Amino acid sequence: MDGSRAKLQQELDEAKQQLSQLRADSSAQWQKAKQDLDQRIAELGRELNQSLGHAGEKVEHALKPGEPAPDAPPPPAQ
Predict the structure, then answer these.
(1) Which residues contact residue 70 at a Cβ distance below 8 angstroms, ignoring those fewer than 6 apart?
(2) Mean pLDDT confidence for 25-39
(3) pLDDT at position 57, please?
């Protein structure tokens, strides 16, 4: 009886250890996924700011008559 109890206790301890390891692995994976997502959000924010900056420049040039936008094709020759 004592041998069975000791074996069951050992199996229980091993299961607890495996559960702890799974939690640690899951936490590490979650942290990595969160870090990757935060980095991608930052990249998208920079890209958005650049796009908005370019759009702002186009609007500024559009509001100044007689000056073509920086990336506008030249007016046709007449």
Answers:
(1) 57, 58, 61
(2) 90
(3) 76
